[in-house]
């Protein structure tokens, strides 16, 4: 069976691969949306933190003999602690300044982190094996889907939806949102707002680190892996609406699927289709699809 002269098996296969990419877009853009939506900081260090998570998994295996499942816990935790240190030493001084200061600070920090990793590990890339439990593939009829890629999609969706639920539907999330809008009032109720802000930044960093761990068995780990992806992820956040958590999740998944379809019909445009959509969305709705107009 064909659609517009293209076998449906090829189309469905690209859609599934697009869903895998979209799950990474969703998770990384989620971390950016959490930090911007709650702290009002454009965090350009996010790509470097994604890379740090991947290298954390590789170093845990190479130097400590710890496998993938330990890395899923320890690498994001390490990146989260790094995020907490960054927030305490640098970010807390610029919250009340223009967005440009945060962008420049985090961009410079990202270059420093990438430079350190390039000096230490080079740029050739490091391989990381798929965990034994997730090796092999499942025959879906129209394609053979690697079990690990299916796991990535499910894990990303679970993390994204759980994060959205905590921030939007729980008392803790209400405290977080209130603490960024009126910190003096929230502190009057005995809540430590600075600590809450620090932990929020650390959580956003940990999400980036988790994305890096999940990506490790799929791509070559190298110091530039974050900078190669962060521009696309920023486009996803802009399209979904800066600070919109649900918008980032849905837009990331949707753009991954659109990117996959574009590879079927016009492969040359697959690397630019996300940015073309961003231009159109900004012209029609500057706040993004799910953002709130001011």
Task: Report on the architecture of this protein.
With 294 residues, the chain is mainly α. It has a single domain, classed as ABC transporter involved in vitamin B12 uptake, BtuC, CATH 1.10.3470. It has 11 helices and 4 strands; from the N terminus they run ββααααββααααααα. The strands form 2 sheets. The chain has a two-stranded antiparallel sheet with strand order 1-2. The chain starts with a strand and ends in a 10-residue tail after the last helix.
Tally the helices: 11
- Number of strand segments: 4
User: Given the helix and strand composition, which structural class is it?
Assistant: mainly alpha
Beta fraction of the residues?
under 5%
Calculate the mean pLDDT score and round it: 88
The rounded distance between the terminal residues' Cα atoms is 48 Å
Q: Given this structure, which CATH class is correct?
A: Mainly Alpha
**Low-confidence region ranges:** none
CATH topology: ABC transporter involved in vitamin B12 uptake, BtuC
Indicate how many domains the architecture comprises: 1
CA radius of gyration: 19 Å
**SSE series:** EEHHHHEEHHHHHHH
- Lateral arrangement of strands in the main beta sheet: 1-2
Oligomer: single chain
Form type: globular
CATH architecture: Orthogonal Bundle
Largest beta-sheet characterization: 2 strands, antiparallel
Which range best describes the helical content: under 10%, 10-25%, 25-40%, 40-55%, 55-70% or over 70%?
Answer: over 70%
């Amino acid at each position: 069976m064909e659609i517009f002269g293209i076998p449906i098996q090829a189309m469905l296969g690209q859609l599934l691969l697009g869903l895998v990419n979209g799950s990474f877009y969703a998770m990384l853009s989620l971390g950016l949306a959490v930090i911007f939506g709650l702290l009002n900081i454009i965090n350009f260090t996010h790509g470097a933190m994604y890379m740090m998570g991947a290298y954390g998994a590789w170093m845990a295996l190479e130097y400590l003999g710890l496998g993938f499942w330990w890395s899923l816990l320890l690498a994001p935790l390490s990146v989260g602690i790094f995020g907490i240190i960054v927030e305490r030493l640098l970010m807390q001084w610029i919250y009340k300044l223009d967005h440009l200061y945060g962008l420049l600070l985090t961009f410079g920090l990202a270059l420093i982190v990438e430079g350190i990793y390039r000096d230490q590990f080079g740029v050739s890339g490091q391989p990381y094996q798929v965990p034994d439990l997730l090796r092999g593939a499942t025959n879906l009829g129209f394609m053979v889907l690697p079990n690990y890629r299916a796991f990535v999609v499910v894990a990303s969706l679970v993390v994204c939806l759980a994060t959205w639920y905590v921030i939007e539907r729980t008392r803790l999330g209400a405290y977080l949102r209130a603490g960024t809008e009126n910190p003096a009032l929230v502190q009057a109720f005995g809540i430590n707002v600075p600590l809450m802000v620090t932990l929020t930044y650390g959580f956003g960093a940990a999400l980036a680190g988790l994305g890096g761990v999940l990506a490790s068995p799929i791509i070559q780990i190298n110091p530039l892996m974050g900078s190669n992806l962060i521009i696309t992820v920023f486009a996803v956040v802009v399209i979904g609406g800066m600070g919109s958590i649900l918008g980032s999740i849905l837009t990331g998944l949707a753009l991954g699927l659109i990117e996959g379809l574009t590879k079927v019909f016009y492969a040359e445009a697959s690397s630019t289709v996300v940015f073309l959509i961003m231009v159109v969305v900004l012209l029609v709705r500057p706040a993004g699809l799910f953002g709130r107009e001011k």
